[in-house]
Specification:
- The protein has about 300 residues and is α+β, with helices and mostly antiparallel strands.
- It has two domains: about 5-200, Roll (Endonuclease I-creI), CATH 3.10.28.10; about 205-299, no CATH class.
- The chain has eleven helices and eight strands.
- The chain has helices at about 5-15, 20-30, 45-60, 85-95, 105-120, 140-150, 175-185, 185-235, 245-255, 260-265, 275-299; strands spanning about 35, 40-45, 65-70, 75-80, 120-125, 130-135, 160, 165-170.
């Protein structure tokens, strides 16, 4: 089951009392494909939404809407029609659709109302891939209502038009988590949080691994340059010409080509720190540089 499907399944399980059922059906009706004073059509690809819509409508209005189903290549489309003008008028009067305001719901029922909207037209991406939740609104006026509702619960949402449809979207895990929690999909919220923690840990491990790899490459490159300088001095002037302190680190480098500067410092008769070893190799590099310059002049 997709992540959107899991969210919708959890939202249906949250409909624990009459007030929540009443509010949820309102959200589904308000964001249905057709909502006029002569006809209501609720259409969905979601089997979960298709299951709960007629059930809630039957509970609230005592009858079930006309159901149609068409099967496509990838999914089925479920349609529910209310064509009786007297019943449609009852729906409009019950929910105040002639002049609707979500203020009619208490705070507890408002989450179910938003959940009904999600059941009607909401979707959310797999959090393993990206953090994106959106509502596809068939009427532009619904976008302002939905954005205002989300803002009232502290969630910032954007608006866009895609293929003639108005989209209200939420980017970022925090806004999606707040939205899902308010609707009642707390288990799905926890799933997103766990995935986010896992991603953060994985990214941190990767950064550490990349840093370690870069440091190893840097150390190997430095060791190769030091060894090259020491061999040049050994072949041209001899290591015996070096001052004792420089000769000590030079011999240790030749004997231990892959150890760090810190380790070389610890192996000296009188141990010194990494910076002290680095300074000695710097002096060796200067000597090797002068030898190379002399060789260039002679050639």
């Amino acid at each position: 089951m997709s992540f959107t499907g899991r969210v919708k399944t959890e939202l249906v399980k949250c409909l624990s009392d009459r007030d929540r059922e009443f509010a949820c059906l309102c959200g589904m009706l308000l964001f249905s494909q057709t909502l006029t004073d002569g006809k209501i059509v609720f259409r969905t690809h979601s089997r979960t939404s298709a299951g709960v819509f007629p059930e809630l409508f039957g509970k609230i209005f005592g009858c079930e809407p006309l159901r149609r189903q068409s099967d496509g290549e990838n999914s089925s489309v479920y349609s529910f029609e209310i064509c009786d003008t007297e019943l449609v008028g009852r729906v409009f009067r019950t929910y105040g659709f002639y002049d609707f305001s979500p203020d009619m719901f208490s705070t507890g029922s408002l989450g179910a109302f938003l959940g009904g909207i999600f059941l009607a037209c909401g979707s959310v991406s797999d959090p393993e891939k990206e953090y994106h939740l959106e509502y596809c609104c068939v009427r532009e006026s619904l976008c302002s209502l939905l954005i205002g509702l989300l803002k009232s619960i502290g969630v910032s949402a954007g608006e866009a038009v895609r293929r003639g449809q108005h989209i209200v979207y939420i980017k970022g895990s925090t806004g999606i988590e707040d939205n899902l929690t308010f609707m009642g999909a707390t288990q799905c919220t926890l799933e997103i949080m766990n995935i986010k923690i896992y991603k953060d840990v994985r990214n941190k491990v990767n950064r550490i691994a990349n840093c370690d790899s870069a440091n190893i490459d840097k150390a190997i490159s430095a060791s190769a340059r030091q060894t090259e300088d020491i061999r040049l001095i050994e072949e041209t002037k001899g290591l015996d010409t070096l001052p004792p302190q420089l000769r000590e680190v030079a011999n240790l480098r030749l004997e231990n080509p892959f150890v760090s500067l810190r380790e070389i410092g610890q192996r000296l008769p009188e141990p010194i720190g990494r910076c002290g070893v680095s300074r000695r190799f710097g002096k060796i590099a200067d000597i090797a540089c002068r030898i190379r310059e002399e060789m260039k002049r002679k050639s």
